[in-house]
Amino acid sequence: MAEEKTEVEVLCEKLLINKKHSANFVDEAEFAKAMDYAEDYKKFLNDNKTEREVAGFVVAEAEKNGFVPFDKFRKYAPGDKVYYLNRNKAVILAVMGKKSVGEGVRIAAAHIDSPRLDLKPNPLYESNELALFKTRYYGGIKKYQWTAIPMSLHGVVILRDGTEVEVSVGEKEGEPQFVISDLLPHLSKEQDKRNLEGGITGEELNVIVGSLPFKADKGSELVKLNVLRLLNEKYGMTEEDFLTAELEIVPAAKVTDIGFDRSMLGGYGHDDRVCAYPEFTAILGLDEAPDYTAVAVLADKEETGSDGNTGLNSSYLKYFIADLARAEGLMAHDVLSKSKCLSADVNAAFDPTFPTPFEARNSSYLNKGIVVTKYTGGRGKGGTSDASAEFVGEVTRIFNNANVNWQMGELGAVDAGGGGTVAKYIANLDVDVIDVGVPVLSMHSPFELIAKLDVYMAHKAFSAFFKA
Ligand code: MN
Ligand code: MN
Hints:
Layout: H1 7-15, H2 28-47, H3 51-64, E1 68-69, E2 81-86, E3 90-95, E4 106-111, E5 116-127, E6 130-138, E7 151-158, E8 164-169, E9 179-180, E10 207-210, H4 222-235, E11 245-251, E12 256-258, E13 264-267, H5 270-284, E14 294-299, H6 316-326, H7 332-336, E15 340-344, E16 347-348, E17 370-373, E18 377-378, H8 389-401, E19 406-408, E20 418-419, H9 423-427, E21 432-437, E22 439-440, E23 448-451, H10 452-467
Parallel strand pairs: 1-2, 4-14, 4-15, 15-21, 16-22, 17-19
Antiparallel strand pairs: 2-3, 3-14, 5-6, 5-11, 6-10, 7-8, 7-11, 9-10, 12-13, 13-23, 17-21, 18-20
One manganese (II) ion (MN) binds next to helix 5.
């Protein structure tokens, strides 16, 4: 017979917050399901390293699952599935609900761009018989982390005649890769005096791409010429075509299980594909028409501040909603003012090695489920959308009712720094918005770390939200 609980135990259970490790939250069958889900996510992350690649994957998979290109002049029926591809870099998917859009829609918005190194318009040069690419970093990175690791090259080149050529080098077995050099410790006496921020400067992020000269009796810069010859053979491009290209250098390492217990995944681009992927699988999983129209936004340009026509500070989401509204004779604001949104982005998990910038009571932790973040920003809540108590209550009730393990977390201690997401841009459209996402260690590094149970909980959370 079980011992009776003491008065203290009863009171503690009744009154104290008790956030569990997700391993103690799911049963064996669901744990196995979560591990399987992580395998699918792993493949997605390995196969899609740029916003264009993610957008291409999403559209192809969506089409296989019955989604069709959105026709803004058509009136859709409940259960109809549509997608809108914005300039090959951002996607909106929707499943039409049973209710009028005038009662609001359910939006989840993640981003599919990740920090990386973009090639400059004139990238290729030769120095001391090495060929190199000049880069400009994209998003917030700690530059010293991006040296002496294998890199791959992804993107598109628009040739003189307008042909678009896709480039991907360094991902497939046997393909060459690229690298940024760093000084050996023996000779870095001067470099060692720099602070961490300046340890490697932006103009030192030069990628080594060749060292063999084109065989000739005479001529200069023959290593560069040889690289151009190879690029011309493979892609039909000349040096001038770099000017009309978008080429991105990203870490080449594959996603891998981390830990003896294989509970985590290390890899490039978890921010924010660890939210984009579950958001996508959640909308794909809507077998029948939801009550409210479900809208999954996969945005670009979050890492550079959401500006530009593929970022969420532009109007394409608003226009999409306006088109949905028009089909029912409504205005965009009739829909937006009643809509609800999960801004789906990663949060910084508490790091036991670097506890100082965190406040332990209000941090998120690996394996404790999806993080709900009431406000982001910095300092005195500067530059944030602060979700109302009512909306926090509503969203967390949805999670509780669907057995989603969730935790509440801030982005770091007060005045330790800060950051933002797309939440404020959507909130500024008069939508109720809250940040939710997966906790990440080593965020924005070439090898970010997440827990498998957390990405699974994110899938459950988005599914529950779309169905609520
Ligand atoms: Mn992010
Ligand atoms: Mn980020």
